[in-house]
Amino acid sequence: MKAALSIWILILATTTSAQLSISGTITNKKANPVMYANIYLEGSYDGTISDSSGHFTLLTNLKGSQLLVVSFMGYEKYTRAINLDKSHDPLSIQLKEQVSEINEVSITAGVFSASDKKKSATLTSFDIATTASAMGDIYGAYATMPGSQKVGEEGMMFVRGGDAYETKTYMDGMLVQTPYFTSMPEIPTRGRFSPLLFSETLFSTGGYSAEYGQALSSIVDLTTNGLETEDKASVGIMTVGANASYAKRWKNTSLAVTGLYANNTLHHMMFKQNVDWVKDPVLADGMMMFRHRVGETGLLKSFISYNYNAMQMNYDNFEYGTKDNIEMKNHTMYANTTYSGALNEKLLINTGVAYTQDQEDIVYIDQPINTNSQATSFKLAFTHLTTKKIKIRMGADLFLEENTQSVILDSTISLTINDTQPSLFLESEIKVSSKIAFRLGARAEYSSFLEEIALLPRISAAYKTGSSSQISLAWGKYRQKPINELLRFAPQLSSERSDHYILNFQYRKNSRLFRAESYLKQYSHLVKYSELYSTDPNEYNNNGNGYAGGLDLFWRDSRSIRGADYWISYSYLNTSRNYKDFPYEVTPHYASAHNFSAVYKHFITPINTFVGLTYSYASPRPYHDKNSTVFMDGRTKSYNDLSLNITYLTQLFKNDCIIHMSINNLLGTKNVFGYNYSNTRAEDGQFASNTIVPTSGTQAVLLIMLSL
Length: 708
Known about the structure:
This protein is mainly beta. Helix content is 4%, strand content 57%. The protein folds into two domains: 2-95, Carboxypeptidase-like, regulatory domain (Immunoglobulin-like), CATH 2.60.40.1120; 111-707, Beta Barrel (Maltoporin, Chain A). The chain has a 22-stranded antiparallel beta barrel.
């Protein structure tokens, strides 16, 4: 839904057409062509990409003196003033290679960052939006990264043996309480936000900073864009709906608004569904971003979004042999205001407030279940640049939550959770030399609901082994409050806990990146129960435990194949847990031992077409076969998916136009995510079963987007 909008705007940022032509050739000092370089006019969306011979042609309708910029990973940025009021001979531009892409040591264990400012950069917003299989979803793109699991019936992030609730999302450092759209049983969800909004996305698979809390396994931190570069507007029509956007730029201020309406009716008519839909899913989405530059260093950001989604289905409750009607409506509002700037030459400030209002109304077989959640968070953090080699970050945050669930039976039963969570953190980063760095930190947390205090130390270190390589280590203690669905019935529960141990090696040179990371996570105090949703608090305890260990490998290369960029990731996971209603410690249902992804992207300059392919594989997942005496000894078939997207850049009615097609599961592979079993035995004494499968075999979205 949001995928096509994101792809269109991000590609438009580097490829547009107009009247005046600027051409030339990009080479390095050895006179070899530099292909796939970005060439653009600073402060505008007029740009292009060099082809396999290093040649480019940039079309623009701008006038006067402009700044031409050429950039490519592994080379220093090139800038040149150019007068567009007159014609120019073809330009000959030579880029200087960076001596090393890891000029000095940095902490990289457990971190995948999409910022060009960070040494471990792996994904950008453009990468996310153009990754086939992701359909513009941030979490879908990170599902191609090592450490993540393929759990197709959920759509959320499962990282290194952790359950989905163990990954938390932050926006500009502020917690996002509901990062996913509400969904239905065995219907995958997706993230609420488009990658278009963000200049940086950081995915930490573990060992993360003391600044982050209440996440047992991993975090995703999203940094929104700065000021809009210029006035712009666009409209788009998709096979699943329509969207529009408008942005206005003043000298020190910008305002952007977007709107989206999506309806899956046509999509469901085109592709056979494995779901008995009563009302096809619909979505309405609106967003506003306000940015204001304060003084020379300050930036004030305000973001607000509203989402509405609804659907109705007859759920095949195979366990009891019934078709259960379920209707869902969800209203979510998220607001976030932050300020960052410098108080003086050595002291930086980051502060903010965020608010979430989420109303979920479900009618299950004529029984209303209403859940209302309100959450407010405050944050104040300072960074002190003590010396060139010492940086200290400290701060405090406060999280206030009220969650109420009402069930209407003969009377209304209402259960409410109120929690106040203040936290303090202190962290110092010390660069002993250009080869050795340490990060020492600790976080103190308190929960009024759990009446619990925790002190959580965290340590990281890195050593530079060569001009382009380094090793990193990380260790830390982490805690997370049990989910509200359990605390409503068992308020005596305490936090779940994990310890992270990480060893990382990274090599990065000449637009190539290799990462290898081994890890061990030890879990304790996991929640166990005899029967889910039992109203007896004594049925719940914190006696669960587990572990997760493995190896993650990642290779990215945007140099070896002309005009192409690709990455390959592989993860090996060995994990086991005794939690929930498990009778003993086993591998949970969402964990695959082997996960593999290959992502390939190619821009074909002569026909202005961008092509992307993604292949994903996951080894069989465990499930509990009721016909077996051994718990969780069943295995699904392996997961396979090949996805494709094609984007064609052209003009329509003298306006820039993009035609985009995205196809998931191109080959129609019949993947199986698990099995449901009947609650009663058949005549042969066996429990009958049915498969948990994707909502449809193949999915496709067509977009036509026009800039105004």
